[in-house]
Amino acid sequence: MKDVKSRGVVRDAEPLHDLRRYLGSLFAEYGGYYDEFVLADTRGYPIFRFDRSVGATVYRESSVPYPIEPAPPVPPTGSPDGAVPAPRGGAFSAVLPAFREADRLTFQAGVMLAPGEHSIHLDDIVAGRPPVVGILRSVVSNDRPNVKLGYILTRIRSDYLWPEELAGRRFGHEGQLGIVEIGSGEILYHTQSGWIGRRVSQVDPELNPLAVSRHAPSAGAPQGGTAASWVQVPGKADPRVMTILGTRSAPWNVVVTATPGEFSSEARKAGLFNLVVASLALMAAAIVLVLASGRLSRSIHSVTESALRIAGGDLSGPPIRAETHDEIETLADAFNTMTASVRRNIAMREQTAAELDALNRSLETRVHERTQELETLNAALNRANEELKQLDMLKSNFLATVSHEFKTPLSSIKAFAEILHDELEERNTPGELKRFLRIIDSESDRLARLINNVLDLSRIESGQMLWRLSEFPVASVIDAAVDGLLPALKGKQIRLEREIICDGAMLHADQDRIQEVLTNVLDNAIKASALGQRITIGCREADEIQNGRGRLIRVFVRDEGQGIPPDQIDKIFDRFHQVGTHGLRRKGGTGLGLAISREITEHHGGRIWAESAAGRGSTFHITLPVATESDLPRATGDAPVRLEKGTPGAHPYA
Amino acid sequence: MRRSASRRERRGLTRMPKRVLVCDDEPYMVESVSYVARKAGFEVLTAEDGDSALATARRERPDLVFLDIMMPGLSGDEVCRRLKTDPSTSRMYVVILTARGQEEDERRAMAMGADEFMTKPFSPRKLRDKLLRVLGDSRHVG
Fold first, then answer.
1. Segment A456-461 long-range contacts (CB within 8 Å, at least 24 positions apart)
2. Pick the residue with more confidence: A245 or A581?
3. For position B32, which CATH number holds?
4. Which residue has the higher pLDDT, A285 or A454?
5. Domain end position, chosen among A425, A454, A483
6. Contact B100/A at CB under 8 A
7. ipTM greater than 0.85, yes or no?
8. Which of A253, A262, A323, A506 is most buried by a 10 A CB count?
9. What pTM value is reported for the model?
């Protein structure tokens, strides 16, 4: 400071009695004092934007544009002489411009501002183009000056401010114009664009001490006044002249330097003149910048407050009154229109919402009732299902237990009957007593068979039966069945004929169970036959073919007995069925043999049926699938498997 | 080798009849099996529950044991397993004689080391034949 000698101070305030008039002339000259302002709440979410080229935009609910009906065009306002130009597009635009990311960042910076404080910054800094000046001010409530209501961002395109001659001309070869942030010395704008963003101390250290300190107008000057200092910069052979413009509130200085020695006498005049003009213009620009932000925030405070109030959801306030005859009034009108529209809108929505709410409540009640009914029903179903499962398990357990319990006394009966029989035989007791004991024995056997049959049937039907599959010739199982019944065949002097014309055909099945089927059927035939009649047993290839599978073998047993009445022919496979008075079931039968035979056959993928004509004997047919190549490796030693009934694919070799 | 030596030894020393242990919780079952075995010339021991079956078998060292599966206390399976895993009793011939004739019962019994699986009702004649086949004709011993 001590090296810098002040040449004088220009007070700007004194000649400007009527600030408004002065500013009005400036607006006329520069085309207006702002281009855009944006209002945001304390979170930095936009509420309202006014843009000279677009018009007004109302945002609602964070940054999501809230669609409102376009307001009628606002008539241009402003003084008829055009001192204050009317904003272009002064109506709500139907197409809402997206909130700019740059604005969000700017507003986020607003958090740093104390209530009522403002910051000035340069936006859109592009080399070779005048920057846009942004003023961010935190808006406070009139009642509570310490509470921030929101932020207002004012943007001013600086090409309005920098006069043509200032922007286009240079100040000699060395003359420069720059805007320097007070304190930090950061160059916000400079005619030498490479300097923007650097510090004065780096690029022109000689200017630094003055450029970074505040040059405030005197205490008596009106707020927003500027002070200009003319100084000579020492330290150079050709001394420079520097003008510094400062204000009370703007955080920058406008610094202009020139080297008077450059100018020739004539040119010097022009140069000096230019310098003076430039300085004055700069002074005016600084005034505009500062005053515009101050005036704006004052003038539109009520608009701002209303907007914030509306953003907070309160639409009940009185209309905004602004009689400033400029775009503020336009804004106020627009706000009022918008508020009314929003109010109507909200009223309609509230009514609709109430109706919807009522409808919803009634629906909810009904849904609730139905849900409860369904839950009750579901619970009942679950209970029933659970009970059924338990019943089924009980049944299985019961059958297993019962059969075991039956067998125990039966074993004793049978054992003692046989013991007695043998004792009687040893003592040569007459035949009749021994016959009685044989009856006890055979009836015990029958009871044991019955129990086994019941158990088997239950196991097959519940899918718990395990089948031992192996590969064997059809003929062998036929022989085995016949051998087992030789005593009965002999006893009735039956002539047995064989028609084995499927010799060599192999089955892949549970051999014991297939033998059981054939034994049952043959046993029935023997019982149905009269003394000395003929029974034919045989096998041949079946006429039918199993679905999607190989050949079927048909085993048949034909007798010459009394036959089965047509109305009984399908029922004989039902359990405990007895054919009429001259029944198929005679002594020794369990009434379950055919039922089990059907289950066994069908679980192997085959079929069993009977043909008969009363008085002309019956023929039983059993079809069984022939083993295929793929069955061969599993011919013996297979682990027991579970089989599904009937369906072709269910057969293990399918 | 050892087994045959032991047999000879016992025959030579005692000339005692072979002994059969019948285990079943059904008294009539025990009685009928015992009768058949005794009539076939064997000495008969009995037990009516699993624990006494095991105790008697360990104490008396019978040549053959009939075991019911479902008995109070230890099951027949378990008695069989313990006898077969103990070297001093593992040579006993164990016949499971049960009313539970399902394959899984037989599989389990065999897995426990049983030598034979018979189901009730049984034929006394077949039982006698089995005894004679397994133990030899005790009546002609000595």
1. A456/A596, A457/A575, A457/A592, A457/A595, A457/A596, A457/A599, A458/A395, A458/A396, A458/A399, A460/A596, A460/A599, A460/A600, A460/A603, A461/A599
2. A245
3. 3.40.50.2300
4. A454
5. A454
6. yes
7. no
8. A253
9. 0.43
